[in-house]
Amino acid sequence: MLDQLVARIPERGAALVLRGDPGIGKTALLAVASAAASSKGISVLRTAGAQTEIGLAFAGLHQLLRPVLTRLDRLPGPQRDALSAAFGAIDVPAPDPFMIALAALNLLADAAEQVPLLLVVDEAQWLDPPTAGALAFIARRVDAEPVAMLFALLDGASSVVDNAGLPELRLGGLDDEAAGDLVDASAADLTPGLRRRVLQIAAGNPLALLELPAAFRLDDARIDGHSPGTVPLTARLERMFAAQMSGLPAQTRDLLLCAAADERASAAELLAAASLLGGAEVRLDAAVPAEGAGLASITDGSIIFRHPLVRSALYQSASAGRRRQVHAALAAVLTDDPDRRLWHGAASTAEPDETIAHEVELLSVRLARRGAIGVAVAAARRAAALSADSARRCSRLLRAADLAFEAGEPDLLQRLVREAGQLNPDSEQRARLTWLRNTFADTVPGDQSQMRSLVDAAELAADAGNTDLALHLLFGAALRCWRSDLGEPARDRVAVAVERLPVPQTHPRRVVTLAMTGPVHWGPVVSERLAVIEASADELTADEAYLAGMAGRAIGDHDAAARLLDSATTKLRAQGRLGALTQVLVMRGWVAIALGRWASAEVLVAESGRLAEEIGQPWWRTGSLIASAALRGLRGETENAERLVAEAEKTAIPQGLNDLICMIAFARGVTWLGAGRPAVALEHLTRVFDQDDPAFHEAARFMSITYLADAASQSGQRHVAVPILDELETLAQRTPSPTLHAGLVYARAVLAQDDAAEWLYNAALGSDLRYHPFDHARLQLAYGAWLRRHRRVSESRRPLRAARQVFDALACVPWGERARQELRATGEQSRPRVPGARDQLTPQELQIAQMAADGLTNREIGQKLYLSHRTVGSHLYRIFPKLDITSRAQLASRLDAD
Question: How far apart are CA 381 and CA 364, in angstroms?
Fold first, then answer.
């Protein structure tokens, strides 16, 4: 497998994880692959995780990229700055981890244009978290590059690499014959009894087969006082290595112990620390006994252990007091590396020490600024543990919890919150605790007590002068009101509380809180404030544009929502913030569906689904799945739509998320409407309007109105829809919601009695619905069918032809066929739909083609989509023959013609 992977590197990239027990041969296989690559002229870049460096942000990534950092200036400015900031070379505001990962990917892709690359990552379970995240991101995107990645991962260990979805090769032990051959080659003098015992205990593990004979020669029957089989093999090997080291000279043990506490330290640093530790100068020849025993070697100015088990055996065999002395000695000599010095200083302290606690707290801030959120959490926790009093400890635990939320670690966040809650927090800290307790609870159904606790905490925060925290708490309460029906009194309390805050009326978080608590009641106020916000849209931050767009969607102003969310998307792409971008893309996809802009919707939904799955946002992935199901259903792909909905239900229904359940009912309704089963569609769509049904949602039902009218009309059940529409007519007098008003204009025409139908159809066809192509085409289809039924055959053909044209352009096959059937009933035949150029492309290919047609370069496209420019080029290479073109210059005209 490794030979094939290496041989294919010049043509295509790949990634593979080697997984197995300690000593099973992972590192040996990495060495074999590295040698094979070097023999073929492939450059090998290496890094290895180190248990002592798990708190050093991007240490592993820096080690990997060091040979190609001379090419850093070739990266676009934002990516160059992000990677430089990650490595501590410059001080800029915190780059997003995904921007750092994209920069690393493009740096490697640039280097691979000169010579193919093999990236070798040993001991991946000990990579610092920011490095592990970046390498997982890269591994998912090397398939179009002349870059391969090999990871060695300890079996049973947890790592970000586990969640990357990479192919794995699980290594087992040697078979009996090979194990016997290895023992005979390395320990030919064993007696038959010892040979059998070695083979029995080693169970095919190569390291054990090589190391156990020496230990067994010392004791024919027992090792470490335990009978064979009662001690796990890994522990047995560690004890064996510890026993070997106990016989070494004291200075050698001190030197090795310093190396075990800092695997990246140079020999000079280790000698200085060992000298401090022992109180006498230690020279380099102190390492000679360790080399003679086969435990460690001096390579490239560093002390390298023969195997990670040697390091762990030595470190764990030392007493806790001795380990603290070692860390103190290392802290004293690492004067040129403040981060490592601080970590060792913190590890050397058993008692509270406010001076060190303050320094480690500042380190946490620096780490977060560099984009190393996971390591910043560890630093904040260590600072809390070293705090001299409970107030400071509580504050630092809350800081760690804030960072855990940002890092997406709910279990750790809840543990930190529990710890902080036991430290007698003050009123503002209690408010922060409430916020943090509920941050990850927004994926479960809200209840009255949750909502009340958030509002109570917001009032505490406001009284303490922390309006920003109060706004966040009330926004969290509003989310619960949106996702679960908590009743009007609960919604009113949130709205009243946010309106009391001393913040501008047009603050986007204040506006969206109102929109989600009362999309109808507060609709006029939100609409008015959104108009003011939009007037200065260019000055909005990405987050402000996102919140304002969310507010627009909540009240049914999808045009405003589209403009604001597009602004947020552009800014988030530039900042490399994939987490927020994913959420915006899901929301923007639903807005595109509501507006009938299906090509955009396909692209948005596909990208958001990929990103949500990659970065672990299950609620948003579910929203994307439902949107994809709705698109499939509208296009007549009933089976695919049902499969996607069934998957989405696994998240939405058990958690009682009304907004998602509502959209599931919507997706099923439009699917069965497209399939020509209007009565079934009506059953699903009426759920959205039934206040006693879990699918009811005050605002989300607005985009269902036109489909409800179609289902009722086509199934001959006008009486089902009329009472619903009467209720909505009353609501329309209280809110300017464009979606609600447009839906009612549509429904009035489709459900009208014959004496009023023509006037209502003409009014609807001349309304703003003409800017929503799918709704307008369905209206033309309904009008044409009405004219035909009233024997106005020649008049009916014009709207039916127009409807057919739009349906064909949207690749909406069942609706196009319906228009053809109506035309046939008038005596006019239609040619079958000819698939357009866009139909040949996947959503991602269409997105890339559109960007290229707009004049963006491959590098610019890659920056927006978090791909390397070579991957973009590979996509275009496949796109050209699908579109029957030969050059980039033909893209725009080909897509426009479609």
Answer: 9
Quickly count: other Cβ atoms within 10 Å of residue 640's Cβ. Answer: 16
Residue type at 563 in one-letter notation = R
Rg of the chain over Cα atoms, rounded to whole angstroms, equals 33
In 3-state terms, the chain is what percent helix, strand and coil (to 5)?
A: 70, 5, 25
Q: Are 439 and 476 in contact (CB under 8 A)?
A: yes
State the pLDDT at residue 304.
86
In the chain, the N- to C-terminal Cα span, in Å, equals: 44
280, burial (CB in 10 Å: exposed 0-12, middle 13-18, buried 19+): exposed
- What are the phi and psi torsion angles at 44 (to 5°)? -110, 125
Name residues whose C-beta falls within 8 Å of residue 4's C-beta, 6 or more positions apart in sequence. none
Contacts of 475 (CB under 8 A, 6+ apart): 509, 512, 513
Residue 827, exposed/middle/buried by CB under 10 A (0-12, 13-18, 19+)?
exposed
How deeply is 805 buried, as exposed, middle or buried, from its count of CB atoms within 10 A (0-12, 13-18, 19+)? middle
Distance CA 606, CA 131 (A): 27
- Position 848, amino acid: I
Q: Tell the residue number behind the tokens 């280097």, with chain if given.
A: 111
Tell me how far the alpha carbon of residue 456 is from its chain's centroid.
32
CA distance 359 to 343: 10
Q: Per-block average pLDDT, block size 10, for the chain (898 residues)?
A: 94 93 92 96 93 84 95 91 89 81 93 95 91 93 93 84 84 93 90 87 88 68 41 73 84 92 89 92 90 84 82 87 94 90 90 92 87 85 91 92 79 88 88 80 58 88 90 91 84 94 96 95 96 92 95 96 95 86 95 90 93 85 95 92 93 80 95 94 95 89 94 95 94 94 96 93 92 93 94 93 92 90 90 77 87 89 85 88 86 75
Q: Mind giving me the DSSP string for 20-53?
A: E-TTSSHHHHHHHHHHHHHHTT-EEEEEE--GGG
Please provide the DSSP assignment of 445-466 as one string: ---HHHHHHHHHHHHHHHHTT-
C-alpha of 284 from chain center: 47
Cα separation, 255 vs 849, whole angstroms? 60
Asked if residues 495 and 516 have their Cβ atoms less than 8 Å apart, the reply is no
Q: What's the longest Cα–Cα distance across the chain?
A: 109
The beta-carbon contacts of 720-726 under 8 Å, at least 24 apart in sequence, are 720/682, 720/686, 721/682, 721/747, 721/751, 722/751, 724/686, 724/689, 725/751
- The predicted model scores a pTM of 0.83
Rounded CA gap, 413 and 6, in Å?
Answer: 42
